[in-house]
Give the backbone structure.
Amino acid sequence: MAFSLNKAFQKYFSNLFVSVVRYGGEWQIYSKVIKNGAIIKKFSKVFTITQDDGLGKEAEEYLEELYSQYNYMYISYLMDSMGQGAISGTSNVDFEKNSVDVKNITQLSIDKRWSLYASFIDINWTKNIFKNSGVDFIYSPFILLYDFISTSKLLQQPTIYILNHEDFVAISVFKETELLFASYFKTSTDEKLVAGDEIDNWEDEDEEKGVNNLIELDRIDDDVEGFDTLEDLEDLDDLDSFDSDSQEESTFKDVDEKEKTLGHFDDENTDTDLEIYGRDLLVYKYLTSSIKEYYKNHIYKSDFVEKIVMYDGYEISPDLIDMIEGELMMDIEIHKINIGEKVCDLAIKEARI
């Protein structure tokens, strides 16, 4: 009864929700203050990653300061390591079909239809990052996608949904709120933080029971795009043999057209544009590989897909849009998002303050 009373009165105090999201070599810490059901303050701060484990002294001191200022504080983290994923189904047989060893993961059933999972090593790696401050919620990219989907107009036809982050891309196929397919790819190399390195007592992780409020992760091996044994789909180009003619068609001829840049490009930022374009070629390769796997692997219910919805938390070039619409003959819908704010909003929803 004391706990219930505490919850009842907690909403009348300031509740701070903090999300921690890694972007390249930086921690981006986004915060929202909720009181009596209303947002009364929003602020954010960025810290350079300077060490191989933990948040670093400056970021930890910042969180300590926040702890001293608010009655209640919740920390959330978006996991971006490779030992996470999502599958259709919830049984051990479903995990076995997807080559996921249930003895080495924590799993979470969503709507009793599909599952999120995280390896014990990655969970412990996350706990090690927050060993001094603690962490209340861990979120997977796929749960972010699911929340976007479930709070939007549901599409009855199978649709590809993409979450685009600087360091990764999460690709999924949903039919309404049912997951049919999921894949996760890194788009940058973790030089400072690598899951499994510098982890306290990681050898004992086969006994790890997971973190409370775990919300997801996925195991995709480094050779995930190795579809050399799969036959090419009809009318779908193999990116591994991406020829020079295709590259000539995907130039920056449209960069100066304001209506096609989505506000990302500036004439004075050519180097940045080229970097984004190079990354988008990688995203395109991962997308086509995922489509091939979805259609060709018998474990997936591969209904025809003709639309892509992207939630863009980083940058994309107009050439990626051109390639998707021209080469894949698919419609694409793009929504710009703030990933840090979305993670905060999910924690607010979870805490039910």
